[in-house]
Every structure is written in structure tokens, then in C-alpha cells.
Amino acid sequence: MSDSESRRCLVTGATGYLGGRLVPELLAAGHRVRCLARSPEKLRDHPWAGDVEIVRGDVTDAESVGDALRGMEVAYYLVHALGTGSGFEETDRRAARIFGEQARAAGVRRIVYLGGLTPAGVPDRELSPHLRSRAEVGRILLGSGVPATVLRAAVVIGSGSASFEMLRYLTERLPVMVTPSWVRTRIQPIAVRDALRYLVGSATMPDDVCRAFDIGGPDVLTYRQMMSRYAAVAGLPDRLIVPVPLLSPGLSSYWVGLVTPVPRSIARPLAESLRHEVVCAEHDIARYVPDPPGAPLDFDASLALALQRVRDARVSTRWSSASVPGAPSDPLPTDPGWAGGSLYTDRRERTVDAGREELWRVIESIGGENGWHSYPPAWAVRGWLDRLVGGVGLRRGRRDAQRLRVGDSLDFWRVEEIERGRLLRLRAEMRLPGLAWLEMYADDAAAGRSRYRQRALFHPRGLLGHAYWWSVAPFHALVFGGMARNIARAAESAERAESAESAESAESSESAGAKAAPRP
Questions:
Q1: Which pTM value belongs to this model?
Q2: What does the alpha-carbon distance between residue 422 and residue 359 come to, in Å, rounded to a whole number?
Q3: Range of weakest confidence among 143-152, 412-421, 509-518
Q4: Positive/negative CA dihedral, 60, 65, 66, 69
Q5: DSSP 475
Q6: φ, ψ for residue 362 (rounded to 5)?
Q7: What is the mean pLDDT of the segment spanning 1-8?
Q8: Pair 94, 106: CB distance under 8 Å
Q9: Domains along the chain with CATH numbers
Q10: How buried is residue 231: exposed, middle or buried, by Cβ count under 10 Å (0-12/13-18/19+)?
């Protein structure tokens, strides 16, 4: 790309699924990038963090938005209030107006927004609240006085996307499905790599272009066909799918929330958006962002690519990259001397007959399919209880099987802080009458050993919070004590296995050397 085509780009929503993938694509295309984030520390461990400018701010705060937009040519608006409660439409409306006004004041050349594909001929009042809000945000940005590109997509298929995870778990977990009537709805899905290609290409659109574009892949399918195609691509037996009209989007969101990792707060708007047919009415985007050979990807190819990334543990961002609506976000209170009230603590320590490096590997790999080194039935029951009350449960798993970064979701926790090789701090996102954290430390000890320290903290909310802590306190020895003990044992076992492997390798080398030595 020539200097004349390079743009200074602001990306909002970089801590989310699409924003986190857009940033490296913009950099690869030769653009300069600034990210606006409420919690900049969540971007600290991304591989591209050192190549961008990161500023703190919120799209509902005009001053911080204005500061972030200063000197920018292209502004990507990739935020929305999905699942945040009854007032989300007003929040979306206010944030979009602020963004448009500040972009015009800063002299931004183009705003780029990714919204939802709305069904043709359906009045706004009949749309789901979230689809209606996304359409309104698009209109606000188009009318801001700044040339805008509004991309409208239906279902985005890519490793880690909420739509893909919902489709994947429904199909894999249920060989026989009683499904809502919306499984008959026709949809035009799009591969995440094509959505990103259109987003990047929009940065250099001519200044006289200000309009919405429908974007989608080449296939138009019912959700039922999508599940059948997923089963075929994943090598699963055919699924028996029985639609039941009585399952409304609201009711089916409970069902989706129990079966998949996607919590009800997100499953409901996804299900509601499937009530109406969402098929592209045009493909005019190709005039400005031409499709290369083989693009857009068809549905089977996008599924195969997403599945391969999941199997190879190369999922760079997930739908859960952004905080779950309603989850607590308060930072860990400083203690002692914290003035915020009661703070209950459960502390555990163990000397480990293994080096700190081996202990840290066990700590950083905790959760997801690796488990919690504790009493599995207790964790499973807690996860199910959380799902039943609308929480995230344990099914979110891990983005990567071995490495964590700040902001990662980890089952019903979120990584709040990492000091590589020493500290992992997790903040609970389960439904609780209070705020909770879990800290795990790896320290050096004498004679090549290490010291494992573990601290669980709980700040109760009201009388119910105090009652909750004392009701579960009798189980702490089983859960937290077992965790400390088993993490230490796992580190010791790994170190013994590594020592045995090294000894065996050395013995093999000596044996080979003796055989190769010339006879006197």
C-alpha cells in the first residue's frame, strides 16, 4: 500500500471478538492504528499491542471520544450494548450520536460500522430490540455529517464467534433436537475473514460514498440446513431435527443457554434476530472492495476453517473476549486498609518439590479442558447452578490450552492480572451476591523447590452475600484445599516425568556414543 492509501485508523471494540481481529488486519494492510478501550490493560498481552497506540476512554464519554479521534482519518465503530438490560437502546443511541458528533468535529474522513442485516420489508417495530437498535445506530452514523460505511451482516462464522459457538454446540451435543420454529428461517451467513476483508477495504473508499452495504457469503440456508451442514463438515452422524412452534425466541434462549457456552443474555438477542429472513438484497460492496478469487468463502469452507482453528488451538479472539453483560468489573480492592467493607479470605500454601517454572506451567494451564485440579463434581454443580440462573457457567473454557492473557475468559472467571511466572489473578463472572477473586502465586523456595500460594477473596453484597460465604465455607477445604494440593502434585509429577525423560535421553546418547567409538 502506498503512503497515499495508508490511513490513521481508530478502532473501538478492540477488546471484543471482531475488533481484536481487525487490528492486525489493518496493520498488515499498512494502516496506522489507535485503539480506544475502557480497560487498556486487556490489550496488553495481544501480539500486536506494541504496534498500536492504546488510549483509555468510553464511547459514552464525549471528551474521551474526542481525544481519541483527534488526528484520525478513519473511525471504526464496533461496539454495542448486546444483552445489557432494558436501557441498552438508549445507551446505543447516545453513544452513536456522541461518536458521530466527535468524528465530525475531529475532521474524520470516514466512519465504518458493522451492524446487523435487517429483513427486507419488515417495519422496525417488528424487529428484535437488538436488531432494531443496530439499524438505528447505522442510521445515526450515516446522518452524522461524516461519510460512513455501514456493513450489514447476518451470522458471522469464525472460530470463537458467538454464532459459530451456538451452532457448534447445538449440533455436537444434541444428535436429536427439538428446536424452535426459527430453524426454518433462511439466513445468509458470512465467514469472519470476509467480514474483516470488507472492514479493512472500507478504510479507503472514495469520500463521496456514504451508504449501507449488505455483506454475506454465497450460500443462503435455513438454520436447520446449517446444523446439518455442520454435522457433515465435522464428520458427525446426521442429526434428527424436529421444529416445535411453541418454542419462542425467549424460551429457546433458555434452552440455548443450557446447551451451549453462550449465556442467555447473549443467546436471546441471537435467537430473536433469527425470527425473520436475513438475506442480502445486493452485493454492491464489491464495487469498492473487489472479491478476490475464491471469495467470499462458502459456508462449508468457513466451517472447515473455523473447526481447524479450534482443533489447532489458534483462536485469536472469542465472543467472550468482551466482558459478559451483567458481570462484575470492579478491580480487586486493596487490602489491608480497604474501606469498602467486609472482605472474606481463604488462604492456602504448599511447598512444592518442583521448580517455580514447572509450577507456573500448571497454574497457567488451569481451567477449560485441563480442569481445576479440585473436586470435579463440585465445580460441575456450581457451573450448572450458574447456567440455571442465567450465568456463563463452565462451558466458556479457554481461548488457548496453555497460554493466558489479561482479559481472557476462563470458564466462569476472567483473567484480571498476570505477572508471568509469578501471579495469576482471576475475577469471578458467575452470578454471586458479591464480588470474588482467585489468586495463584508461584514463588521460589530453597533447594530448587517452589512455594505455591493461593488466595480466594469474596466481598459480600448485603446480608445475602454474608450468608452465601458462610454457607459454602464448610466446602472450602474440599474445593480450595484440594486445588492447592493437586496443583502441587501436578507440578511435582510433571517435573519427575521431565527428569526421567532427560535421564533416558542422556542414557540413549551415551549408549549411541559408546557404539560409535572406534575399537583400540
A1: 0.74
A2: 9
A3: 509-518
A4: negative
A5: G
A6: -65, -45
A7: 74
A8: no
A9: 8-319 (3.40.50.720), 344-501 (3.30.530.20)
A10: middle
